[in-house]
TrEMBL record:
Domain named BioF2-like acetyltransferase: residues: 172-266
Native organism: Bradyrhizobium elkanii
Protein name per UniProt: BioF2-like acetyltransferase domain-containing protein
Record's signal peptide: none
Domain of life: Bacteria
SUPFAM superfamilies per record: Acyl-CoA N-acyltransferases (Nat) (SSF55729)
Pfam families reported for this sequence: Acetyltransf_6
InterPro entries: Acyl_CoA_acyltransferase (IPR016181), BioF2-like_GNAT_dom (IPR038740)
Amino acid sequence: MRKSVFHEDWWLDALAPGSWREVTCSRGGRVVGSLRFVTRTEGGMSICEMPQITRFLGPTVTLQSGKTEARMRLAHAVITDLLKQVADFDHVEMTLDTGFSDVAAFLACGYEVRAHPTFMLKCTSPRDELWSGLRDKTKNVIRRARERLAIREVTSAKYFVKYYQANLEGAKSYFDLSRLEAVYAAASERQQCKILAAVDSNNNVHAQVFFVWDHKFVHYFLSSRDRSIAHPGSVSLLLWSGIELAHERGLHFDFDGGIENEARYKFVVAFGGELANRFDVSRSTIRYRLHRQLRRVPQALLRRLSAGAAASDVNDHGVRLNHFPSS
């Protein structure tokens, strides 16, 4: 129920300028709970959700010390109050932080709850202990990558965006890339982000990773690699650099979920983190569920018809985006 980097005004302003909202709950003249979100319409229906590429954003609840029973009862009441304030939306969805383990209020309000696992690594241990916690094969991959690659900081969000877009190889990004520059500018101003690149001796950029952090976690936020040249250990080396970053700040490292995929699970578990659950929670009206079901049919047909044409597309970016930008 903590306030994370994703709850900050500046984060929301960067990703959803002028369009995010907040509902609050007060007790005794003091705000004890809040829920931030963005709204949009789809097919004439109202939707309450998180801004794009925001990893989680559920309610924040501030409780005073006291008996566990009293604190849990108050938290349940505050969350219920917040959910009632968004009850008129046709669809509500959000992801809860790993520290948000009590989902009883959501279940009582008719929400569906699904586990969204991630790995967390406590990085306050000595660096040698963190290194020894890695799988031996992963350590060897990182060692080999170090022989060929150097880690450099990227200070141009525009360059990261172009590199990320080029490596999509014609595919559509799942988020609006134009917002990344604003996110980087806001986070960089507060010294809460860093973009690192793995670069070889010829100045070729094999991969880049965008990290963001708050007072508790360094988040593995975004990554991209050039499949045509990328060293097999380039992303592993960058992830280890992110773990070192968290270690320097006395923070935890969040590998950012996505481990429902078997290959990603095997990749991430090798870094020695512990499993933790975020929760995806959602509630929909019958009208909205019917609308979504009907939309799937033409979309599936369109994907089949466009598959052949997409395979023949040529991706000509016209610039050497796999070269590290000169200062």
